[in-house]
Design a protein that fits this description.
It is a single chain. The protein has helices at residues 2-26, 57-75, 93-102, 137-147, 156-159, 172-176, 182-196, 213-216, 233-239, 242-265, 270-280, 286-309, 359-372; strands spanning 34-39, 80-83, 107-114, 126-131, 204-210, 222-229, 315-323, 341-345, 348-356, 377-382, 385-390. The protein is of the alpha/beta class. A 6-stranded mixed beta sheet has the order 2-1-3-6-4-5, with helices on both faces. Strands 8-9-7-10-11 form a 5-stranded antiparallel beta sheet. Zinc ion is lined by residues 40-41, 47, 57, 112, 146.
């Protein structure tokens, strides 16, 4: 049965990606150097087409991609911008991801326009996807359409390990994926949707997860944005005009700027962070700062005690997220979990829950936890350090 074979192949791929990630972690977080802009479709693949056949997705998204690239080059001259295509050519999905991987890109942005059947022409709005398992039929129709292009590629059954874009069973492999970059991807996707809220496309359909082949093969944070519906009259009037395309590119450029600030914040050494924090607090009263310090110290001491108890023994737990700034234990991000602990690593607070003697026990508990925390994965913690990662 191909599902089994394919799942194994997917896991193999996953371990390769995880290896690259672990290596990156050891070297510490780096400055953002390269962004890949992927204009969907192209050449013999038109993408979706407007009901009057006047407009097609491949030219709309190329126009947005080029406008965005130009803005990024002007506003972030230190960053290398790579296009998977800058003209009307056909590029296979796996090659798009390969371009990003070869360039060691820090971020991958795939730009698409949406479309639904004529009886659903009232549906409008923008949405941004990260890699994951699709949840609703509506999403499945979209992901199926975007993935269907592989059928235009030579030799696609071998290349994609028998993946059939129209069969829901094929998508099982995506639920096995614990993408090492999902937290960063979701962060970027969230910034995009926040910017989109400023218009010109009116409805904001939010951040979603689905199994897009083009995202599957990338080894860096990656998102796929659907800028609006060609099948909807109101959206169409925006996304097919120069003005509308320029405004959408502006939103994407601003979202990138915000993501970059966040990403590079994680680069600050603790000393730099303290300095930055000091500046923020200049206006605060001395005693307020002292009180905060005491709380911090107590938290660190508590962590220390726990670490002592666990000395020289690896405890297996589930990492649920990482943030550059420390979150309160009562933060809503933790969805009511009371057993959240953290380790500090490479300028990030990495939060985990649970604690088991064996990797197997942690893995058994992972699916339940991952329902609430997408992208969660098993880690081994020893003396306050992460010593093992299982993706
Ligand atoms: Zn598309």
């Amino acid at each position: 049965m191909w599902v089994v074979g394919s799942a194994a192949a997917a896991l193999l791929l996953l371990f390769t990606a995880a290896g690259a990630y672990a290596q990156n972690e050891q070297q510490g977080y780096q400055k953002m150097k390269c962004v890949v802009i992927d204009a969907g479709h192209g050449g013999r693949d038109y993408g979706c087409i407007s009901p009057d056949k006047k407009y097609n997705e491949k030219s709309i998204v190329l126009s947005v991609a080029l406008k965005l690239g130009k803005m990024l080059k002007e506003e972030h001259p230190d960053i290398k911008i790579v296009y998977t295509r800058d003209k009307d050519v056909f590029i296979p999905l796996d090659e798009r991801a390969a371009i990003a991987n070869r360039n060691k890109a820090d971020l991958f942005l795939s730009i698409h326009a949406n479309s639904l059947a004529s009886n659903l022409s009232r549906i409008s709005g923008s949405e941004t996807y990260t890699m994951g398992n699709q949840v609703s039929q509506g999403n499945f129709d979209i992901v199926k359409r975007e993935n269907a292009v592989i059928a235009m590629e030579d030799d696609y059954t071998t290349k994609y390990e028998g993946f059939d874009p129209s069969s829901p069973e094929s998508y099982i492999i995506f639920s096995l994926l614990q993408n090492a970059h999902s937290e960063q991807s979701i962060k970027f996707a969230t910034y995009i949707q926040k910017e989109y809220a400023k218009g010109p496309v009116k409805l904001n359909r939010g951040v979603k997860q689905a199994g897009f082949v083009v995202l599957w093969r990338t080894t860096m944070p990656s998102v796929l944005t659907e800028i609006g519906f060609l099948s909807n009259e109101e959206d169409r009037k925006i996304i097919t005009t120069e003005k509308g395309q320029r405004e959408i590119a502006r939103r994407l450029c601003d979202a990138f700027g915000k993501y970059r600030v966040d990403y590079e914040k994680a680069l600050l050494t603790e000393e730099e962070e303290e300095k930055a924090l000091g500046k923020e607090k200049e206006d605060k009263k001395e005693n307020e700062i002292e009180a905060e310090k005491k709380v911090e110290k107590k938290a660190t001491a508590d962590e220390g005690k726990r670490a002592d108890n666990q000395k020289s023994k690896v405890v297996y737990a589930v990492q649920i997220m990482a943030t550059p700034k420390r979150l309160q234990s009562s933060a809503s991000h933790f969805k009511g979990r009371k057993d959240v602990r953290f380790v500090q690593e490479n300028g990030l607070y990495k939060y985990y829950v649970g604690g088991w003697d064996t990797k197997q026990q942690a893995q058994q508990n992972l699916p339940q936890i991952a329902k609430l925390f997408k992208g969660a994965f098993v880690i081994g913690v020893k003396e306050g350090k992460i010593v093992d990662r299982v993706y």
